[in-house]
Amino acid sequence: xxxxFLLISRSAEFETRLRELLGGRLAVVPGAFLAFGAEATIAxxxxxxxxxxxxxxxxxxxxxxxxxxxxxxxxxVALVVVREQSSDLEDWADELQLHxxxxxxxGEDELKMFIVDVVRWLIVEGKATMDEFRPRAAxxxxxxxxxAELMGIPTDPDPEPEPEPEPEPExxxxxxxxxxxxxxxxxxxFAVVAPKGGQGKTTVSINLAAGLARIAPNSVVLVDADTQxxxxxxxxxxxxxxxxxxxxxxxxxxxxxxxxxxTHHRGDFFVxxxxxxxxxxDAIRPEALGRLIEQxxxxxxxxxxxxxxxxxxxxxxxxxxxxxxxxxxxxxxxxLRALRTELEMLRTIGLLPANRRIVVNQSExxxxxxxxxxxxxxxxxxxxxxxxxxxxxxxxxRGVPLIDDDPRDAAARAMMTLVTQIAxxxxxxSARKARR
Length: 436
Ligand SMILES: Nc1ncnc2c1ncn2[C@@H]1O[C@H](COP(=O)(O)OP(=O)(O)OP(=O)(O)O)[C@@H](O)[C@H]1O
Ligand SMILES: [Mg+2]
Description:
Layout: E1 5-9, H1 12-22, E2 26-30, H2 38-42, E3 51-54, H3 60-73, E4 78-82, H4 89-95, E5 100-102, H5 108-124, H6 142-151, E6 188-193, H7 201-215, E7 220-225, H8 232-235, H9 244-247, H10 255-260, E8 263-265, E9 269-272, H11 278-282, H12 286-299, E10 302-307, H13 313-320, E11 324-330, H14 333-348, E12 355-363, H15 371-378, E13 384-387, H16 390-398, H17 402-405, H18 410-422, H19 425-435
Parallel strand pairs: 1-2, 1-3, 3-4, 4-5, 6-10, 6-11, 7-9, 7-10, 11-12, 12-13
Antiparallel strand pairs: 8-9
Helix pairs in contact: 1-6, 7-18, 12-13
The structure holds adenosine-5'-triphosphate and magnesium ion.
Adenosine-5'-triphosphate binds at residues 194, 197-203, 226, 309, 361-362, 386, 388-389, 392-393, 396, 411.
C-alpha cells in the first residue's frame, strides 16, 4: 500500500498542509467531484484508504453520503471529519459513524499527533497493520521518512539506493533505540512479588529497573503487571502512549506494534504502563500476559515485572514466564509468615523460579525482630535489607526513582545493593566512578 491516507476536501490550503505532513502517502479527491454525488466521488479513489479525511468545506449531507459510501466499500477505514468546533458537531458525530474530528486550524504538531493517534487506534483495533503505513522507497520522499520517524517505524531500504555522497554520522530511523541483544547476553526476567499488599514491590521494581538501566541503557523494560491497582505510571510521572492493555492485545503480538505501546523514561528504560482502570486490567488474559513477557525477553536484556499481591492467576502466569523472583516482605511476623507460605506453595506447585532473592523492606531498629529472626521465620536467607526511610516517600511524591532522587540515602544504597547482586557490572562501574 502506498497511499493509506485519503483527503476529500474543497480547501486547497488544508490539502497543502496535510500534504506537507504526509507527502506521497496522501491521495486527494478534489471536492469538485462532490457535485456529482458520493458514488462518483468515491469512484475516484484508486487504492483502499486506511484513514479518510472529509472536509473542510464539505456540508453535512455531502459528508454523510461520502461517509456511508466509504463505509460500505472499506469497512475498516477510519473516518475523520475536518471541521471547526461548533455546537452541531455532536450531531455530526452521532449520526455519521465518525471515528474522529479534527479542526482545520490545528497546528502542525497537533495535526501530527492526531494522525499518530488515529493510526495507533487502527492498529490496536486490529483494523490495520503497521506494515500498511510503512513507506516504500522512503529515501525518495522526505515526508514519508519524517512520518516513519514520527511513528518510530523503520523505513524499508530504498530499492535502488542512490550513491551516498557523504557518510552521514547520524540519522536515526527511530526516536529510541533498542540496543540489539548480544549472543552472550542471557535475557533475565524478574517478577517482583509479595503475598501481601503494601510491602514495597513497586518501590523495588522501579529502583531495580532504574539501576539496571545504568549498566544497560535502553535494554531494560519495567512492566506494571499489577493489573488492578498498578501505580507505576503515577510513581514515575509518565504520560504513557499505551498501556499494558494495548501491550497484551492481539495486535501487539506484532513486535512493531508492541513497541508503539511502550513509554520511554528519561532514566533510559522503557515502561509498559499501568492499566487505565481495574476493570480493563482484570480483563487481561493470563496467557496474553505470559506472551508479553516472552516477547519482551526477545527485545530487552532485563525485564522487571511488578505484580498484584498474592498468587492470583495473572501473577502465577508472570512467575511461570520469568527467570528470577524477588520476594518483598516487611519486617513483621505476619508478612514474614505469609512469605514462607507463599514460597512453600510455589515449591509445591513447581513454580518456584530457579533464582530467588528476598528483600526485607521498611526495616527498623528496636522493633523486637531482626533480619536473623526474619530468616528463621521465612526459612530462607535474606538478600537485602532496605531500611524504612522518608526519602522513599519523597521520591515517590516527586515521581522520580529513589536511587536517582537521593542516591546517598540508606534505602537507595540498599536498592543499589540489590542491583549489584543481580548485575555485578554495576558495582565495578560505580567503583570506577568513585576512583575517578
Ligand atoms: N523503605 C521504605 N521506607 C519508607 N516507605 C516505604 C519504603 N518502601 C515503601 N514505602 C512506602 O510504602 C508504600 C507502599 O510501597 P509500594 O507501593 O512500593 O508497595 P507495593 O507492594 O507495591 O504496594 P501494593 O501492594 O499496594 O502495590 C508506599 O507509600 C511507599 O512509598
Ligand atoms: Mg505496587
